[in-house]
Amino acid sequence: MERSRALELVKKQLTDKRYMHTLGVTETAIQLANRYGADVQKAELAAIFHDYAKFRPKEEMKQILINEREDERLLAFHHELWHAPAGAVLVHREAGIEDKDILSAIRWHTTGKPGMTLLEKIIYLADYIEPGRAFPVVEEVRAIAKQSLDAAVLAAVKNSILFLMSKKQPVFPVTMDTYNDLIQNGDDG
Ligand code: DGI
Ligand code: FE
Ligand code: FE
Question: Is the pTM of this model over 0.85?
Answer without folding.
Answer: yes
